[in-house]
Specification:
single chain, about 130 residues, alpha+beta, OB fold (Dihydrolipoamide Acetyltransferase, E2P), six-stranded antiparallel sheet
């Protein structure tokens, strides 16, 4: 069974966003990292790049598949998780602690359209 944290918002494409004030931390869910298997590379945007909700901003590659990363929110990238450059497998060990990008949100209420933990659990059948 996947770990799904309360208080985060979840996209159908298996990304989450953790909202803290005007910022959002975006990563992939525990369910997604289980499905991908051992992550070997994370392709991330650059700081100051804009991301748009519903559009891809990078990719995660594993030993069995590559998967586009779809942003759950819109805004400007203010930080990328540099640790993933050298240790992409951190996404497997704890995908919630090892977010991929930090975004200054264009509209914090945009996250209200995403699923809460209960809705995400129901979507993945847990």
């Amino acid at each position: 069974m996947s770990t799904i944290l309360e208080g985060l918002r979840y996209a159908e494409s298996h990304e989450y966003v953790k909202i803290e004030g005007e910022y959002g931390y975006v990563g992939i869910t525990d369910y997604a990292q289980h499905e991908l298997g051992n992550v070997v590379y994370v392709d991330m945007p650059d700081v100051d790049d804009e991301v748009t909700a519903g559009e891809d901003f990078g990719a995660v590659e594993s030993v069995k598949a590559a998967s586009d990363l779809i942003s759950p929110v819109s805004g400007v990238v203010v930080e990328v998780n540099e640790a993933l450059n050298d240790s992409p497998e951190l996404v497997n060990s704890d995908p919630y602690a090892n977010w991929i990008i930090k975004v200054k949100l264009a509209d914090p209420t945009e996250a209200d359209a995403l699923m809460d933990a209960e809705a995400y659990k129901a979507m993945i059948g847990e």
